[in-house]
Amino acid sequence: MLQNPIAMNKYRVFGMILCFLLFAIYRHFEGVFYDPIVGFFSSSSNSLGNLTYDFSLYTLSLISRYLVNAALTILAVYIWFRSKKYTTYTLDTLLVVGVLVIPLFLSQVYFDFPFGKMFAFYLRRIIVYPIVLLLLLAVFYFDSQKNA
């Protein structure tokens, strides 16, 4: 059964606007998450030094933040592509990235950045920002064009 392309485009535009609004709301409430070392990355220091913070609370906050990003990423991929294959691939990719990147970043913080501040900075960006979404949108778009 063929669907009306105009109705499908309206639905897709509505979905994109909804995803944008969800990410905007998420960015607005970023202060809710405990992130005591965010200022460290903009400083000239290469060591946490005398910065006091609760590592377990920071770990919990970082994982919660990643889970919110992952949920919004899965929702965005589902709305844009309406494909179970792409949604499943997104979930698998986010699981692998989370299992690899979060412990690596937390070990960097715990051991006071043995590989340098910039390495930890970019690991944190992968966790905190929807970088995986941007990469996957490009991959899925080109794959859908190839299969069209």
Write up this protein.
There is one protein chain. The chain has helices spanning 5-28, 55-81, 84-110, 117-128, 131-147. The protein is mostly helical. It has one domain (5-147). Helix 1 packs antiparallel against helix 2 (55-81) and helix 3 (84-110) packs antiparallel against helix 4 (117-128).
The gist of it:
By secondary structure, this protein is mainly α. It has 5 helices and no strands. It is elongated.
Query: Number of DSSP helices?
Result: 5
Helical proportion? over 70%
What does the largest sheet look like? Answer: none
Care to count the β-strands? Answer: 0
What tags apply to this protein structure?
mainly alpha; single chain; 148 residues; 5 helices
Task: Set out the fold topology.
Elements: H1 5-28, H2 55-81, H3 84-110, H4 117-128, H5 131-147
